[in-house]
Amino acid sequence: MRPLRIALVHDWLTGYRGGERVLRHLAMRFPDADLFTLIHEPGSVPPEIEERSVITSPLDKLPGRTRHYRKLLPLFPWAIRRLDLRGYDLILSTSHAVAKSVRVPPGVPHLDYCFTPMRYVWDQADSYLGTGLGRALATPLVTGLRRFDVATSGPESVTRFMATSTEVARRIRRHYDRPARVLPPPVDTTWIQVASQAPDDAYLLVGGFVPYKREALALEAFRGLDRKLWVAGDGPGRAALEREAPANVEFLGRLDEAELAERYRRCRALIYPQHEDFGLVAVEAQAAGRPVIAFGAGGVVDTVRPLRPEGAAADDADATGLFFDEPTPGALRAAIERFEKNESAFEPQRLRRWTERFSPARFDQGLDQEIALALEQVR
Length: 379
Fold this sequence. Notes:
alpha/beta, 3-stranded parallel sheet, 35% helix
């Protein structure tokens, strides 16, 4: 029996973030698969992705498209439907925008690994498109994109959905009325060594500097605190935040793996203020043996075992972090104070063992099962 001819579909290739880490794993898993995407900036992703056949949409011919691709949002539905996927036995998309909306040839199974339904028009529309007059002007665009998103989410378009987290599975059910298997992303922690020494008196934030990451909330929480905050990463909003940051916040810029692993080991805890779909960073910090102080919603509900509320009659022996319930600087400061009172409860080797459930091997096992089911559904 000949091997399956597989097409991978990803929204765009303009940087190496969480979604591209998953894509890199799939590219290594299926080395002969072709890759389809809206826009490709050569050199922006690792060789495992770059060194294959990458087929792009007509948008990739526009000048300045890699810097201003978000402004092309109204054209995404048209562009994704221009990709020609005839001749493949299986389509495997990784999507947070329109990759799952590709035109599927009759009789070909399409398995979508959904990072989230299109956040620009659903759950985080206000963050990206604003409120007031700006949002009112964007209403026809939002309405049209939602209609397109739903129309390309039925069984004739997507054979089976997989979700990165319980939160994302709920969104898929709410917006598309489709079930989704929760399959956490493959988190490779082989490059992270567990902490063997006491941490520095500093906390770590790994930022992307886009609205939902909430770096500003963390910076305000540390204003006036006698604690240091390291901020790793880069992104569109970094410069403005850096200008207004208090003196106890140090911006490290984009770190390579070795540098980031070192900061994970040296920090007291990871500060995680965002409402994330899954959040690889939270798992990576725990793999280094460091707990996570997180806003208690989204992917961390699956990836972090929190300390119980104060006064609760429960055993915290399995805790790997703690949550705060309000997205405010005051709530985060209170969580930091509570963490410092309970810091000895977080044993590094135990936190490392917890992260084994997010291993690439477990992901591959679940993916194989979903591929088999998708192929069976279209026979």
